[in-house]
Amino acid sequence: QVQLVESGGGSVQAGGSLRLSCAASGLTYSSYCMGWFRQAPGKEREFVSRIDSAGNTRFADDVQGRFTLSKDSAKNTLWLQMNTLKPDDTAMYYCAAGRWRGFCPWNYWGQGTQVTVSS
Hints:
Helices cover 0% and strands 53% of the residues. By secondary structure, it is mostly beta strands. The chain starts with a strand and ends with a strand.
């Protein structure tokens, strides 16, 4: 059974940085895609970033150049490095995963970690 556990959220001032971690179990990194979504109060959940089974990454336009994504298959961990944070980045961040099929079906979700950016 796939389990995803996020950590690393917190409160920072605008311009600061945070690194989120997603510890995964029950999946084979070589065949899975993983990524991050976020949901702000009163808004729908939105895509942030993902890495496919070949290691290719993709980012939402508003985080491109500020966020980076990496994974360590040996440690079964996915990291989201968030730099130059803005108040608009405030949201609950969720780790997600799925078996790569040329797209990512996002079958599995973590419980989320809160990120709050103050101005």
